[in-house]
Design goal:
223 residues; 10 strands; binds adenosine-5'-diphosphate; ABC_transporter-like_ATP-bd; P-loop_NTPase; NitT/TauT family transport system ATP-binding protein; ATP-binding
Length: 223
C-alpha cells in the first residue's frame, strides 16, 4: 500500500487565481518524493489536496486506487509547527490519536512507547514537550503520526522551524526513520539540498499565483 496517483490536479481560488494546475504524478509504494520550488508555486496546496484538507477544482488523487475525498488516517500529515499538546507527556501525545480511534488506554500507551523508541525518544516518554529541543519535539510529532500507521506520510517543511545544525541532524533521523518504516513519503521543502538528501525523486514546481500563472510541475528529477 501507499501508491499515490495524482492526476491532472488543480486548485482554482476564484477569479483568475489558480494556486496550481495540471499536476500529474505517480508515487510508488515506499517511494519518497520531495516537492521543491519558490514560495507561492503551490507546494503546500498540492500537499493539502493530497491530505484531503482541500478539494481540488480539477483532477483527482487516488490512494491505492481509491479517490481521496477528505482527510483520512491513511495519510499522516506533519507540519512545521509540531502541534503537540503541552499538557500531555511525550507518551500521551503519541497515544492521543490511538485513543481517539478507540484503542484502550493501556494498549495505546504501549504502542506510544514503541513509537517513541522508533524515533529515538525512548528515554523521554514522560517528558513534557516544552522541556525538549525543537528537533525532539518534531520527533514526537512524527512518532504521533506513525503510530496511526498511515500508508503515506505527508510532510510540509517539517524541519523548517529548526536551526541549521538540528536540521542537519534531523535529516539523518528522517532517513533512519524511513528505513525503519518504509512508508511512502511526500516532502515539501524549500531546500533543494534537503530534497536531494531525502528523496528518491525531486519534483520541481514553478509559477504560482503571484507570477500570474498557475503553479505547475516543471521537472521531475530522479536523485
Ligand atoms: P507554496 O507552498 O509553494 O509557497 P501555496 O500552495 O501556499 O504555495 O500557494 C500557492 C498560491 O496559491 C500562492 O500564490 C497563494 O497566494 C495562493 N493561495 C494559497 N491559498 C490560497 C487561498 N486560500 N486563497 C487564495 N489564494 C491562495
Ligand atoms: P535533536 O537533534 O533531537 O534536536 P539536540 O541536538 O537538541 O537533539 O540534542 C542532542 C541530544 O541531547 C539528544 O538526542 C538528547 O539525547 C540530548 N538532549 C537534548 N535535549 C535534552 C533534554 N531536554 N534533556 C535531556 N537530554 C537532552
Amino acid at each position: 500500500t501507499g501508491h499515490l496517483a495524482i492526476d491532472g490536479l488543480g486548485k482554482h481560488y476564484g477569479g483568475d487565481t489558480f494556486a496550481m494546475r495540471d499536476v500529474t504524478l505517480e508515487v510508488s509504494p515506499g517511494e519518497a518524493i520531495a516537492v521543491v520550488g519558490a514560495s507561492g508555486c503551490g507546494k503546500s496546496t498540492l500537499l493539502r489536496l493530497v491530505a484531503g484538507f482541500e478539494t481540488p477544482t480539477e483532477g483527482r488523487v487516488l490512494l491505492d486506487g481509491r479517490p481521496v475525498t477528505g482527510p483520512g488516517p491513511d495519510r499522516g500529515v506533519v507540519f512545521q509547527d509540531y502541534g503537540l499538546f503541552p499538557w500531555l507527556s511525550v507518551r500521551e501525545n503519541i497515544a492521543y490519536g490511538l485513543r481517539e480511534r478507540g484503542v484502550h488506554r493501556r494498549e495505546a500507551l504501549r504502542q506510544a512507547t514503541e513509537h517513541a523508541e522508533l524515533v529515538g525518544l525512548g528515554r523521554f516518554v514522560d517528558a513534557y514537550p516544552h522541556t525538549l529541543s525543537g528537533g525532539m519535539q518534531q520527533r514526537v510529532g512524527i512518532a504521533r503520526v506513525l503510530a496511526l500507521h498511515p500508508s503515506v506520510l505527508l510532510m510540509d517543511e517539517p524541519l523548517g522551524a529548526l536551526d541549521a545544525l538540528t536540521r542537519r541532524q534531523m535529516q539523518d533521523e528522517l532517513v533512519a526513520i524511513r528505513r525503519r518504516v518504509g512508508t511512502t513519503l511526500v516532502l515539501v521543502t524549500h531546500s533543494i539540498e534537503e530534497a536531494v538528501y531525502l528523496a528518491d525523486r525531486v519534483v520541481v514546481m514553478a509559477g504560482g499565483a503571484s507570477h500570474g500563472v498557475p503553479g505547475q510541475v516543471s521537472a521531475v528529477v530522479p536523485v
